[in-house]
Amino acid sequence: MAGALKLLYFLLCVCSHALTSLGNNSSTDVLALLSFKSKLSPGQSGGMLASWNMSSPYCRWPGVACGSRHPDRVVALLLSSFNLSGPISPFLGNLSFLRMLDLRDNHLVGQIPPELGRLRRLQWLNLSSNSLQGSIPAAIGGCTNLKMLEISNNMLQGEIPTEIGALKDLTGIGLQENDLSGGIPHSLTRLQSLEQLLLYENRLSGAMPSSLGNLTNLLVLALSENMISGAIPSSVGMLSSLSELILGANNLSGLIPDSLWNISSLKYISFRQNMLSGTIPPNAFRNVPLLQVLLMDTNQFHGLIPTSISNASDMAALQLATNFFSGIIPQEVGSLRSLSFLQLSNNSFHAREPKEWGFLTALANCSELRLLGLAGNKFWGILPDSVSNLSTSLTALTFEFNRLSGSIPKDIGNLINLDSLLLDRNLFTGPLPSSLVSLKNLVIFYIYGNNITGSIPLAIGNLTALSYLLLYGNAFSGAIPNTLGNLTNLSQLSLSNNYLSGPIPNAIFNIRTLSTILDLAYNDLEGSLPQEIGNLKNLIEFYAQSNKLSGEIPTRIGECQLQFMDLKSNTLHGSIPLTLSEMRSLEMIDLSINNLSGQIPKSLGNLTMLYYLNLSFNNFVGEVPDFGVFANLTAISIQGNDKLCGGIRDLNLPACSLPLSKRKHKFLVIPIAVSLVTTLVVFVLICMYIWHNKRKAKIPSTYFMQGHPLISYSQLVRATDGFSVTNLLGSGSFGSVYKGELNDQEGEGTSAVAVKVLKLQTSRALKSFASECETLRHVRHRNLVKIITICSSIDARGNDFRAIVSERACSWSGGGMHPAEIPSTESS
Ligand SMILES: *[C@@H]1O[C@H](CO)[C@@H](O)[C@H](O)[C@H]1NC(C)=O
Ligand SMILES: *[C@@H]1O[C@H](CO)[C@@H](O)[C@H](O)[C@H]1NC(C)=O
Ligand SMILES: *[C@@H]1O[C@H](CO)[C@@H](O)[C@H](O)[C@H]1NC(C)=O
Ligand SMILES: *[C@@H]1O[C@H](CO)[C@@H](O)[C@H](O)[C@H]1NC(C)=O
Ligand SMILES: *[C@@H]1O[C@H](CO)[C@@H](O)[C@H](O)[C@H]1NC(C)=O
Ligand SMILES: *[C@@H]1O[C@H](CO)[C@@H](O)[C@H](O)[C@H]1NC(C)=O
Ligand SMILES: *[C@@H]1O[C@H](CO)[C@@H](O)[C@H](O)[C@H]1NC(C)=O
Ligand SMILES: *[C@@H]1O[C@H](CO)[C@@H](O)[C@H](O)[C@H]1NC(C)=O
Ligand SMILES: *[C@@H]1O[C@H](CO)[C@@H](O)[C@H](O)[C@H]1NC(C)=O
Ligand SMILES: *[C@@H]1O[C@H](CO)[C@@H](O)[C@H](O)[C@H]1NC(C)=O
Ligand SMILES: *[C@@H]1O[C@H](CO)[C@@H](O)[C@H](O)[C@H]1NC(C)=O
Ligand SMILES: *[C@@H]1O[C@H](CO)[C@@H](O)[C@H](O)[C@H]1NC(C)=O
Predict the structure, then answer these.
(1) What's the CATH superfamily of 371-651?
(2) Residue 422: which H helix or E strand, with range?
(3) What is the pTM of this model?
(4) SS3 of 806, please?
């Protein structure tokens, strides 16, 4: 009985205590909510949170949830994508019953209030995708029941507080895409329940702690795009549940611990873009049966692709580019039925005899193959016809920069879904196969730097998706087909260094999309330049030097916005049209070695960007202007024009109307003669240098090739502000073009780029939260510098993603012709 009384008394006490505290605490909660609302920008509190007012109980306010046992206490605040902006109120720290706080995907600014550390019941905190700054408060260690901590995609700085290591229930940490620095705290490796540790895209440094091996429940370890150095600790091999190991784009060195290849749960591995070395052990793929993605590109690996690759039967993407791998490619790759992406470019793989090409035949079994990259290896001899038997799902085939000879396989047109066919810088001969016309989706066709003969097929005009058509440096002959005018998506057309003859078809000048380069130089083209050239309003560079062009320079050329224009060594006559100086961005004009006459337009002196003007060896007469480019002796060349006068004194031309006073300067004759000789020598050196550079296009082996920093899908997302409509430059049947700003390799400054996202019909279910891109190459040849890289990856939704990243016009300054860039070693 006494016991029952005691119990009753106890219950009464508890209840009354609960009631009083309920009153106080509920007002605390409503105060906290109102404070939260009041801190937000007025526009917002009047918007999504307008109904947070006393006309309804706060537990029914949108995004607010109260408990079932404590109906007046706020247990969840779920306000993701509420378009909230402003700082987070520290009063939120008073919501002492809060279990879930979800403020992701808003425009919150300022610091994370340390008061949040008072939320001891908090289990789930998501502040991702805001604009929060400052460091992560150490007080967060007070949220002792926290299971998920996600503050990704903000602007957080400073170190990761070691106090997080005290939150022993944490299963997920997502601090990726911030600006965090310092090392990975050892304390994190005490979190036995941790399943996801996402720290990618920060500025973390130091080594990977070997105690990471203690996180035996870890499923995802993503540390990519930081500055982490040292070796990968072998203890990582103890992470026996690991599914994704993403370490790309760091400064890791040393060998891959053998034990890693024993983690049978691995599906996604990225070691790319580090300084790792060593080999892939022969049995590497025996114990990773689930492996789907292996990215090892841009490291210092060597050795063979082991035949055990066949055991990784789910493999969808194998990226080994830009290493020192060698040997023949094992036929076993053909047994990987899900293989979609095989990028082996820039290694030392070889194939010379038919049996060494067996892999190519075997790959025909990979019906999902979409990219095959074999550029920059040691593939010699005839490219087997079996290449045409590859899956029709192939969208990109790259064989450039090998030593392939013979004809291009005649059935290459079987690969009807190709959007990129790169065969440049080989030793191919013979004509282009007629089946090429079947490649209706072709966007990039590079065949430059070979020895292709015959004419450019008329049917090329049917490939209307083409954006980049680079045929230069071959032995094409005959006329330029006017069907080229049908290529209404063409951005760059280069036909230089061939044996093309006849007139330039007017149709070419109606391709209004030509926006980078039109290069017709070093052929035998004749006839005159039509007025229609004025249609090419977006063209940046026009080259037609060393042909047999006659007639006058069309006046409508002034409607273009050229930066570079070279018409040297033709038989143009007439005078320079005054409209030329309407192209305000002109940087380089070469009209030398023609029959041009008349006066030099004074207005050329008004072109402020002009740093190279060559008018030599024509029949110009009259006064040379003395301002703008004409005031700079090293920027102009005018010799070989006998009837010029005036100009700046250093030109040593006769005065236009001979005043007697000039005789005073007789004593200057010797210095002037000396400077004239110096000028001539410099000029000849410049000419030799430029001529030398241009002729290089004929000799494939001298092409300079260099790996480009890999561009990831996420970098492109950032560069284009999430492919936002405001950055959309245009779209067409091929896809869409966005402008963007890409961080430079050194992280200093940005480059203006254009990102052409190709439209892809099919999607793949290959999913990964941190998709990364493959890259092809970055070629420093003048004609090619425009394409920075080709990104082929998987986007955030797991769909195939392909984009071409090129420089944007406004950043195209100095393309290698700048006399100031002539290296001082030139004289040697
Ligand atoms: C208060 O909230 C109610 C909905 O609960 C809404 O209809 C009303 O407009 C709000 N009042 C103000 C002043 O915003
Ligand atoms: C709630 O939090 C704020 C700021 O952290 C504090 O000033 C206030 O006294 C707290 N208590 C109540 C009952 O609002
Ligand atoms: C946290 O928010 C981010 C950004 O919106 C989201 O990607 C992530 O899935 C969220 N976390 C959870 C556990 O829902
Ligand atoms: C964690 O790992 C370190 C080094 O690998 C080891 O010395 C330590 O005993 C481990 N601690 C726990 C709790 O497993
Ligand atoms: C990368 O690591 C090497 C040593 O392995 C070091 O010399 C170099 O400074 C590091 N680079 C960066 C950018 O951290
Ligand atoms: C990998 O596992 C096999 C058997 O499962 C074992 O024999 C081998 O020693 C392991 N290798 C490493 C490096 O852990
Ligand atoms: C690996 O593949 C080989 C031949 O392709 C096969 O004999 C072997 O049984 C496979 N091993 C495993 C562990 O699947
Ligand atoms: C390709 O597939 C065919 C038929 O399925 C099979 O006979 C052949 O052995 C396979 N080749 C390779 C290399 O797997
Ligand atoms: C292409 O495949 C077909 C059918 O599988 C076969 O008959 C033909 O010989 C193959 N061609 C080459 C060049 O391998
Ligand atoms: C190109 O091919 C022709 C014959 O088709 C040959 O005469 C010429 O030497 C070749 N040029 C080069 C650079 O290989
Ligand atoms: C090219 O297109 C034209 C017109 O669309 C068509 O008549 C012609 O047959 C096509 N040529 C080839 C080789 O497909
Ligand atoms: C003259 O031209 C040269 C080459 O274009 C350039 O490097 C130099 O800066 C110019 N000098 C002046 C004073 O503009």
Answers:
(1) Ribonuclease Inhibitor (3.80.10.10)
(2) strand 420-422
(3) 0.81
(4) strand
The residue whose CA is least distant from atom 5 of ligand 1 is 51
CATH of 73-308, one of 3.80.10.10, 1.10.10.410, 1.10.10.10, 3.40.630.180: 3.80.10.10
Can you say whether residue 575 is alpha, beta or left, with left for phi > 0 and alpha for psi between -120 and 50 degrees?
beta
Ligand 4 atom at minimum distance from 233 CA: 5
User: For strand 64-66 and strand 85-87, is the pairing parallel, antiparallel, or unpaired?
Assistant: unpaired
- Please, how many CA atoms are within 13 Å of residue 380, restricted to the half-sphere of its CB? 6
Ligand 4 contact, 214 CB (< 6 A):
yes
Q: What is the predicted pLDDT for the residue at 9?
A: 45
Q: Which of 440, 462, 464 to mutate to test the pocket of ligand 11 (most atoms within 8 A of CB)?
A: 462
- Strand runs labelled E in 296-413: 300-303, 317-319, 324-327, 341-343, 348-351, 371-373, 378-382, 396-398, 403-406
Ligand 10 atom at shortest distance from the alpha carbon of 427:
14
- Give buried/exposed letters for 650-659 (b at 16+ CB in 10 A, else e): ebebeeeeee
Res. 419 pLDDT band, cuts 50 70 90: very high
The DSSP call for residue 163 is G
- From ligand 4's centre to the CA of 172, what distance in Å? 20
Alpha-carbon distance values, 414 to 104, 430, 447 (Å): 48, 19, 18
- The region that residue 83 occupies, defined by phi over 0 for left and psi between -120 and 50 for alpha, beta otherwise, is left
Taking the mean position of all CA atoms in its chain, how far away is CA 140? 37
CA 109 vs. chain centroid, Å, equals 29
Answer yes or no: is pLDDT of 685 > 90: no
pLDDT in tens, 607-643: 999 999 999 999 999 999 999 999 999 999 999 999 9
HSE, side-chain direction, 13 A CA sphere, residue 734: 30
* Ligand 8, atom nearest to 331 Cα: 13
Both tokens of 160, joined, read: 């990761």
Q: How far is CA 223 from CA 62, 198, 257, 517, in A?
A: 37, 6, 17, 40
Task: Quick: pLDDT tens for 243-301.
Answer: 999 999 999 999 999 999 999 999 999 999 999 999 999 999 999 999 999 999 999 99
- Mutational test site, ligand 2, from 91, 96, 116, max ligand atoms within 8 Å of CB: 91
Q: Cβ distance 463 to 413 under 8 Å? A: no
Torsion, Cα 715 716 719 721, to 10 degrees, reads -110
Q: In angstroms, rounded to a whole number, what is the distance separating the alpha carbons of residues 90 and 105?
A: 19
Per-residue model confidence as pLDDT tens digits over 12-50: 333 333 333 444 667 899 999 999 999 998 765 557 888
Burial of 16 (0-12, 13-18, 19+ CB in 10 A): exposed
Q: Domain 713-821 falls in which CATH fold? A: Phosphorylase Kinase; domain 1 (3.30.200)
